[in-house]
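User: For my dataset I need records formatted as: sequence, then structure tokens, nothing else. Please produce one.
Assistant:
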Amino acid sequence: MGTHSLNLLPKAFPPTLASSLRPNLLRFDSTRHRRSRRQNLSIRSVFTGIVEEMGHVKDLGLADHGGGGFDLKIGARVVLEDVKLGDSIAVNGTCLTVTHFDTEAFTVGLAPETLRKTSLEELERGSLVNLERALQPVSRMGGHVVQGHVDGTGVIVSMEAEGDSLWGKVRADKALLKYIVPKGFVAVDGTSLTVVDVSDEDSCFNFMLVAYTQLNVVIPTKKVGQKVNLEVDIMGKYVERLLLSMNNNTPQV
């Protein structure tokens, strides 16, 4: 990579990843973008939302190959055990492709579109991230089906302890909140969680983290006001699509 961290970028660059998305980096070929979106409709990898380990950001900066992308280098241990070039690893719930690796870290590429749609723009050198390898046919489904296709971001509203458990409350856009139901699943920064309650009035939902989970995911390390990646349960989308299709095909009397 061209830099060791965004903080070490030349002074001409803003100090944060979010602000370094200059207008020229946000322009892209619309035809290529549409073609890319069609290709991404096929599911290449599936995750479970059971975080395997927390990695840490070692380097973050503009990609050497140009084109307006970024490279993200993450220190890890468990996910490197059988990694290969081209493998998919979920980083805070975002499915990313391994472009380089060694015995201590791996590198993935970040497109400007990925940064616009996820909370990865807030990462900096030293940030902790949730990591999970793609599901294999022999793996147990410990959480729920997570595609690694982030639907949007939410904002942490509160974190409150109750005994050794931790209550988390997240505000989400109403367009996403409609797919989130009490006792249902939601992936928060790639962690499969059970929703406790949903408030349409506040546009929020909450969840509880037990002591073990608190020690093994990044959510408790974040502060109120920070973003989290959200992926809603895909089953809700399928049901909505099916009902819309049935209504559109209903003969008019």
